[in-house]
Design brief:
heterodimer; A: about 220 residues; mainly alpha; 2 domains; about 0% strand; B: about 100 residues; 5 helices
Chain lengths: ~220, ~100
């Protein structure tokens, strides 16, 4: 556990700042201090939370917001399967510990590969959770006082964050093709349908995964 | 109940289930390779859609505004191998600067 906290340490300030910015953004789109903080504590998956809040904030509607967030988190099914072998004990305990799996703790602990380290996975996950949830509480409390997050360019910061996370995903020609297709679907549909739907529709790009060979 | 709380409950419950399905239900069994491949395409497809939407969408319109400067600064930071927090800071700073000047 302690090793996990140490390994995650360089990421913690960024996660804290992101938690604060999530809290500020959520307050600006109709969330209260409690609902924003509870979302970070229970969902604990940054990009999906930003997606849900930004779809709601753009007037995209509740169903689109939920669908976009859950589709974004669908990757946690395969990610969870890749680390399933280090979870032991009762089903409830496994379910609880599995909540500490996020992109960062999964990547830091060996990305489900042969070097997978349970202590790093759970320790890093716990440290990230504390910063994410604590940051959200601070941001949600300060939100009203800070004012419009756009003044600080936070909307551009999210776009930059998603771009950085995307670039980290482009490990093969197939993932590049999926990204190009997903981006194109979103751009083409934006003028045609309600906000939120283009993002959900972009998941159709997963059919590229049906191809057996990469390239 | 407000939309915000409904979103908190639905997204929270769904995510708990998604994160838990492997450790609780699957254990060490293997998924069919085709399913693994399809699920592996979700993250790049969705993140690209989010980049497009967060950069250019304004309601139902596609617009070019200060956010594009933020994305460009973020991209530059990624290319220069900056840490994630610096990428995000560069994105915010460039967006705020262009917005203040325009």
């Amino acid at each position: 556990m302690r090793r996990g906290i140490r390994v995650a340490a360089p990421l913690l300030p960024a996660v804290l700042v992101f938690g604060v910015s999530f809290g500020v953004l959520a307050r600006g789109t109709g969330f209260g201090v409690l609902s924003a903080t509870v979302m970070s504590a229970t969902t604990f998956a940054g990009s999906s939370q930003f997606a849900a809040v930004s779809v709601l904030g753009a007037g995209g509607g509740l169903a689109s917001a939920i669908a976009a967030a859950l589709l974004l988190n669908a990757r946690y099914a395969p990610i969870g399967i890749s680390v399933a072998r280090v979870f032991h004990g009762s089903a409830l305990r496994r379910l609880g510990e599995a909540q500490l799996v996020v992109d960062e703790s999964w990547a830091l602990s060996g990305a489900g590969g042969p070097s997978l380290d349970r202590g790093v996975l759970l320790g890093a996950g716990a440290a990230l959770w504390v910063c994410w949830t604590g940051g959200t509480l601070v941001g949600a409390l300060a939100g009203g006082a800070i004012g419009d997050p756009k003044t600080f360019g936070l909307d551009g910061a999210f776009a930059a964050l998603f771009l950085a996370l995307l670039l980290g995903q482009l490990r093969s020609r197939r993932t590049v093709a999926a990204a190009v297709a997903g981006g194109a679907i979103a751009a083409l549909l934006t003028p045609e349908v309600r906000p939120g739907i283009p993002i959900v529709a972009a998941t159709a790009a997963v059919v590229i995964g049906l191809r057996r060979r990469d390239g | 109940m407000s939309d915000a709380w409904l979103a908190v409950l639905a997204v929270g419950a769904g995510t708990v289930a998604l994160k838990g399905v492997g450790p609780v239900a699957v254990g060490t069994r293997k998924l069919p390779p085709v399913l693994t491949r399809v699920l592996g395409m979700l993250a790049p497809a969705l993140l690209a859609a989010l980049v497009v939407s967060e950069t250019f969408a304004s309601g139902r319109s596609l617009v070019v505004d200060a956010r594009l400067a933020g994305v460009a600064a973020g991209a530059l930071a990624v290319v220069l191998r900056a840490p994630l927090w610096l990428v995000v800071l560069a994105g915010a700073a460039a967006t705020a600067a262009v917005r203040a000047l325009s």
